[in-house]
Amino acid sequence: MALIHFLVASILSVTAVTSLPLLNATVLPQNQTALTVGSAVPFGAVIDRCSVPGTVALTFDDGPYMFTPALLDILSANSAPCTFFVNGGGLGGIYNYQDVIQRIWREGHQLGSHTWGHSNLAGMSYEAVVSQMTDLEQAFVQIIGGFPVYMRPPYLGVDGVVLQAMTDLGYHIIHASIDTKDYENDSPDLIWKSLEKFRAELNAGGTIILAHDVHQMTVVSLVQGMLDEIRERGLRPVTIGDCLGDPRDEWYRASRW
Ligand SMILES: [Zn+2]
């Protein structure tokens, strides 16, 4: 697994400084047919739970932002790989945080798409949904030399058009089975409510955890509390790809064309 990750990292590092169309078609999948070969995870279907026993997946939406580096320090200190569903034109703007995106990726976390602009995709035209995905793909290609095949819809908004677009584009759609609602509790007096909600939904069998790295209390308080609870229960915090048993070389693709 580590070797595969290293190889993918090497490939994507090379493509970051060279022209993507020059990438050998046999190295990374160039089209959806090839992409689906090694992945047992369905495309265009909503997934809200891990399939690998004993794992849970912490996920952080809406970044990158000013608190993301501090979160990465905490995750590193806890040896806890996580998944970041990032925006393009979000709070921080992805081009202003290219070093943070590269650090997320370099430190063994997983990057996913949260669309370019964080609009609710449900109700949008097919063309608009595709643009929300492909605009961010172009930013990812510039920053890490490839783009993710995992996405989380903003507001978990999905309709038939969205499902079709994600099927056509080749995206795994990730919802959550534990919703911390950390955005409602972003103060020192309230954040315990999110930790309690996390515990209750963990008790109920939830495994994919939704939080946001754009909120300070999530980073300085909630994350360590959740990681401590995960360890105490003998669970293993992993990325979305690992919690679904998807090989790491299936998490990104180099080019759509
Ligand atoms: Zn969001």
From TrEMBL:
<dbReference type="GO" id="GO:0046872">
    <property type="term" value="F:metal ion binding"/>
</dbReference>
<protein>
    <submittedName>
        <fullName>Polysaccharide deacetylase family protein</fullName>
    </submittedName>
</protein>
<keyword id="KW-0378">Hydrolase</keyword>
<dbReference type="InterPro" id="IPR011330">
    <property type="entry name" value="Glyco_hydro/deAcase_b/a-brl"/>
</dbReference>
<keyword id="KW-0119">Carbohydrate metabolism</keyword>
<dbReference type="InterPro" id="IPR002509">
    <property type="entry name" value="NODB_dom"/>
</dbReference>
<dbReference type="GO" id="GO:0005975">
    <property type="term" value="P:carbohydrate metabolic process"/>
</dbReference>
<dbReference type="Pfam" id="PF01522">
    <property type="entry name" value="Polysacc_deac_1"/>
</dbReference>
<keyword id="KW-0479">Metal-binding</keyword>
<keyword id="KW-0170">Cobalt</keyword>
<feature type="signal peptide">
    <location>
        <begin position="1"/>
        <end position="19"/>
    </location>
</feature>
<keyword id="KW-0732">Signal</keyword>
<dbReference type="GO" id="GO:0016810">
    <property type="term" value="F:hydrolase activity, acting on carbon-nitrogen (but not peptide) bonds"/>
</dbReference>
<feature type="domain" description="NodB homology">
    <location>
        <begin position="54"/>
        <end position="238"/>
    </location>
</feature>
